[in-house]
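Project outcomes to date are best conveyed with an example. Our students and postdoctoral researchers have been running inverse folding experiments weekly, and each run begins with a structure described purely in tokens. The record below, which covers 381 residues, was selected by the lab manager from last quarter's runs and is presented without edits.
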């Protein structure tokens, strides 16, 4: 295959003129931050996923930190999560003084294995933090059932899964709290940004306090006036700006179109690779619909003679921006220094050694998809 003229990244934002006009319009308004646009965005996201409440944050990591705080996670508490995720998932547990307990994945879906969750529960377990990896919803009925049995809180990391469906319901109103990310490569973008959706008024109030210095408006003493406010707990400045929210409102109006294109591309890949020996395709749970934030194949090293590193480099040399998501979190030096060791999640580790991410984003053309398919066939051959 001939090298592409331009580099095709694994993911990319899709910004159109209406998005630009929305941001320009906000720049001409009285508020750049702490104005009405954030609340508008929060209500739009909550309505879209079917949740009662949504609280926007400056980024997805801050949102996860807020969720762990709202759940009351602290020193001595354990939180069960997956190692196949970006480090921010388990980092949020550490921020609150808790201990991440890494749990193996299901080899078909790449998501945390509910049966393994059951084996990891102890008297110290406070919460489960599953990740909808690649946009594929976790088995929420089973996980919520485990949580109810053991009185645990479920914080769903849905950074990849805005718009995904689990048994005919959108992800975002099924767990106790769900986080969505709005980084540029995610389903929609606010440049940076994150949000927590929940049906709990208690969590909603805790989240709002946490993201804004722990400050709330209260009834003022007689000698004070309307300016009066009180800091009632130690919070952070994790607020989303109105500028971000303006872009988010505009992007959210197009999400279904974005998702439709991602699913078209995934179908094209599935059909192209179905009969190629050595390529293992991603699987979906019954009655789920992935958001296809990532499209990941596995390279069966028993069949394909080239190493993943060689295949990766040859694809990049053709200007195809393949990637790998993610290094098992506990392999990072910081986590090794905390005492985590290789071998604790053997299925995840084997999966990681064979995984490769292919480009997928809404503005990809059919010709782009064809280039990826031809490159894979050429390099593997």
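After processing, the design step wrote out the following sequence:
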């Amino acid at each position: 295959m001939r090298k592409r003229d331009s580099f095709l990244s694994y993911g990319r934002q899709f910004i159109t003129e209406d998005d630009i006009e929305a941001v320009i319009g906000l720049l001409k308004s009285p508020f750049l931050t702490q104005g009405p646009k954030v609340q508008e965005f929060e209500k739009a996201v909550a309505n879209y996923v079917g949740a009662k409440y949504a609280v926007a944050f400056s980024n997805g990591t801050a949102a996860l930190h807020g969720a762990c705080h709202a759940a009351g996670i602290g020193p001595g508490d354990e939180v069960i999560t997956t190692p196949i995720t970006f480090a921010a998932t388990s980092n949020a547990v550490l921020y609150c003084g808790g201990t991440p307990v890494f749990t193996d994945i299901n080899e078909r879906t790449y998501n945390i294995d509910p049966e393994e969750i059951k084996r990891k529960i102890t008297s110290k377990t406070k919460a489960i933090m599953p990740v909808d990896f690649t946009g594929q919803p976790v088995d929420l009925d089973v996980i919520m059932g485990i949580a109810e049995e053991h009185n645990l809180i479920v914080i769903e990391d849905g950074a990849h899964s805005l718009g995904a469906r689990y048994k005919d319901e959108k992800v975002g109103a099924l767990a106790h709290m769900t986080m969505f990310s709005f980084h540029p490569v995610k389903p929609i973008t606010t440049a940076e940004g994150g949000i927590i959706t929940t049906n709990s008024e208690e969590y909603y109030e805790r989240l709002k306090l946490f993201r804004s210095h722990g400050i709330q408006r209260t009834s003022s003493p007689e000698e004070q006036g309307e300016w009066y406010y009180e800091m009632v707990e130690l919070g952070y400045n994790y607020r989303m700006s109105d500028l971000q929210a303006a872009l988010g409102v505009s992007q959210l109006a197009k999400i279904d179109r974005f998702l439709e294109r991602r699913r078209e591309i995934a179908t094209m890949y599935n059909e192209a690779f179905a009969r190629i020996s050595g390529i293992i395709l991603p699987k979906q749970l019954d009655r789920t619909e992935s958001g296809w934030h990532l499209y990941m194949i596995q390279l069966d090293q028993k069949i394909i003679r080239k190493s993943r590193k060689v295949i990766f480099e040859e694809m990049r040399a053709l200007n195809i921006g393949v990637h790998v998501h993610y290094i098992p979190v506990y392999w990072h030096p910081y986590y090794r220094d905390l005492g985590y060791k290789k071998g604790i999640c053997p299925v995840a580790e084997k999966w990681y050694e064979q995984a490769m991410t292919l480009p997928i984003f809404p503005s990809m053309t059919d010709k782009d998809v064809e280039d990826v398919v031809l490159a894979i066939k050429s390099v593997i051959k």
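The chain has a mean pLDDT of 96. The radius of gyration is 22 Å. The training component of this project remains on track.
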